[in-house]
Design brief:
Blueprint lengths: L3 H7 L3 H7 L4 H11 L3 H11 L3 H17 L3 H14 L9 H19 L1
Helix pairs in contact: 4-5, 5-6, 6-7
């Protein structure tokens, strides 16, 4: 189960995330749990596999907004980097390092929800 303490140890700026949720911890944690099922993670992986720069931009940009609002900093930073790398790209640049980091942190967050 995700807790504020686990999120803080993960690297999330829980203080800011909670402020955005009117300091309602249950609401904040519910939103974080909902983000675990965000279809944009799948869309991003599929776009990377298809070498679709525009698809990567669209999915990363959507994730950047949601992750930023929740102050899930490690994921937000990676999504931001992917967004900027692909913002005006016609072909997909090498995003392997950043995408690996993003999906590793995503798996780590999903694991926090299980324990």
């Amino acid at each position: 189960m995700i807790t504020i303490e686990k999120l803080a140890a993960f690297g999330a700026d829980t203080e800011t995330g909670l402020k955005r949720c009117m300091n309602n911890e249950a609401f904040y944690l519910r939103l974080v749990n909902m983000e675990l099922g965000d279809a944009n993670f799948t869309k991003l992986r599929d776009a990377i596999d298809a070498r679709d720069a525009h698809g990567v931009f669209e999915a990363a940009h959507a994730l950047k907004g949601a992750l930023g609002n929740l102050s899930l900093t490690p994921l937000f930073e990676a999504a931001s980097s992917l967004t900027e790398l692909t913002r005006n790209a016609d072909t997909l640049p090498d995003v392997s390092s950043i995408s690996h980091s993003l999906f590793a942190k995503y798996e780590e967050l999903k694991q926090l929800a299980r324990i």
